Amino acid sequence: MFPLPRYLSYNHHLELFKNFIFHILVTCLGITAGGIGALIYALDSSVKAGDLAVHPARYKWDFYGMFNSLDHASVRRGWEVYKNVCSACHSLQYVAYRHLVGVSHTEKEAKALAAEIQVQDGPDATGEYFMRPGKLSDYVPSPYPNEEAARAANNGALPPDLSLILNARHDGENYIFSLLTGYCDPPAGIKLQEGQYFNPYFLGGAIGMGQVIYDEVLEFEDGTPATASQIAKDVTTFLMWTSNHEYDDRKRYTIKTIGIGVLLISGAIYLKRHTWTTVKNTKLLFVPKK
Q: Of 2, 44, 52, 276, which is least surrounded by CB within 10 A?
């Protein structure tokens, strides 16, 4: 204990002692809280380090950057990849054919795509339901009538909907590209069950979806060479758009906001200097009294 001045009363001594104990308790509580936080962080890091998943590399996508927009030719090719490869198992329940207009297809082309599907509608005047060709307002149909049918067709695994899949995964665009191009033979010691495949980018390594992206697995309408990496790139760009319909609008608003902001700030600076120039340039002369 530190020596107390003699001129302090007993109550003052007691008050100082209470404050001293209080500061010690607060310090101990802070150290304990910091230790617990460090322990939780270490445990969380150890769990992540033990996950059987490889972190994807960060690629230089065309849409990275403050003023970069989506490559709409790539979005169109990505739709072709989804339609010809992915649509057999995965749905796009939040994408309607009208969303394609002005993004990857013209209105006439989007109507033609919608007309290829049959949609149940009704009831009609007789109370019966009927099938009709799709319209722009219709959404991309699911390959399965319900979740149970989807699981039954995929050994119990449920193929996820791809509408928002890129936002639902950490570092989504790099993860999806790496996943589609990262299939390989399992390393020694890892046993896969029937109907499973090995992909180091998938958590645990064992994935129920087989490799579907190969060189020349389809032909692009615009003649772009359909290499595996090109196919994965285009479908990833397409999924970036399905997850962020407003992506290009955000970039346009950013450019407009910066432009308007520069004008307003320039005007404010000019107005400020014009308003205060008289005050700043005024010289006061003090003449001492005689």
A: 2
